[in-house]
Design a protein that fits this description.
122 residues; 11% strand; two-stranded antiparallel sheet; rod-shaped; mainly alpha; 76% helix
């Protein structure tokens, strides 16, 4: 009976050892899967970081272009204002001259301060 109990005990222990070995294999596979998932997350994070860096660079470039465009618009506005002032000054300068032409004939007059230099009739 002692031998029989020992054999049953050993058989039971061997069965438990097999179950433990199978459970350890399951744990090892689960750990391996966690490592694979962790690696995937790391790779995705690296790709995302790179993408965010590219977006940041693009936004910085767009900001610089917008600033340059704003400066160009400001210069154009100043030039337009200056041209407006020049036009007003020219209008004021030529306002002192009067050119008369009869309805039946046209007279072209080259003007100089103080009067006509030459008159041409067509």
């Amino acid at each position: 009976m002692l031998v029989r109990n020992s054999v049953e005990s050993i058989s039971g222990g061997a069965a438990h050892a097999d179950q433990v070995a199978q459970a350890m294999g399951d744990v090892r596979r689960a750990v391996q899967r966690v490592v694979e998932i962790n690696d995937s997350i790391f790779e995705a994070s690296q790709a995302q970081r790179s993408g965010i860096g590219q977006v940041n660079e693009a936004v910085s470039r767009m900001d610089q272009v917008i600033r340059n465009n704003a400066a160009v618009v400001e210069q154009a506005a100043q030039a337009a204002f200056s041209l407006g002032e020049q036009v007003a000054a020219q209008r004021h300068a030529i306002a002192v001259f009067e050119v008369h032409s009869p309805a039946s004939e046209t007279t072209n007059c080259v003007l100089r301060l103080g009067g006509c230099v030459a008159t041409a009739r067509r």
